[in-house]
Amino acid sequence: MQPLTAKELEYIADSMSNEDLLIKQCTAAALSCTNLQIQQVLMHQSQVHMQQYQTLLNCLQQHQGIAPTQPSS
User: Domain of life here (predicted)?
Assistant: First the structure.
């Protein structure tokens, strides 16, 4: 496994930020929704985004051991 590039790290960080926002939005919408079916769909989508966030975090953790300790010149 090769270390992630700075561009890849930026992409993953942006994706994690987007997933976090989607989790919050889906959860907030579900809590304010009165239609049970729509509420269930929104909670399911929140869980899907939590799984995607966790997958991205796991990817970073797997690469942590081989990440460079100094910026490359």
Answer: Bacteria
